[in-house]
Structures are given as C-alpha cells and as structure tokens.
Amino acid sequence: MKATFRKNLINGALEVYIPKKDLEAVVVNIQKEGVWGGIFELSNGWVLKVPALETEPKFPITLEVKKINE
Hints:
Structural class: mainly beta
Oligomer: single chain
Radius of gyration: 11 Å
CATH superfamily: NifT/FixU-like
Number of helices: 0
C-alpha cells in the first residue's frame, strides 16, 4: 500500500498518512535497515515494512510499504 511520510516542522516527529485507510499516525519506533527505512511502529499500533533507502529522503515522500503483524 502507498504511504506518505512527512516531518512535523514544529516537533520534528515523523508522520505517515495512508490514503487507502484514511489513516494518519506518528512513527513511534524505527528498526533501521540502511540509512533510512526498515520496520516502523506507528502510534496506532500498526507495524510497517518500509523499503531501505541509501540516503535520508526529502519530505514529503510517498513509498510502497507493507503492513506486517507482530
């Protein structure tokens, strides 16, 4: 599924919006793979597999992610 990531300019938090589910959440934990990407835990309890990138992206960025169960 597609997810759009952005940085909150006020507090620096990484936020995600998933249009297919009309879901907005804050990323609360990241298990990094590479410079940016990996397993992202969201404030609503969802866990997403985000593709690893070699450099930190410019925000906002839309990526194909996969929801995983833990």
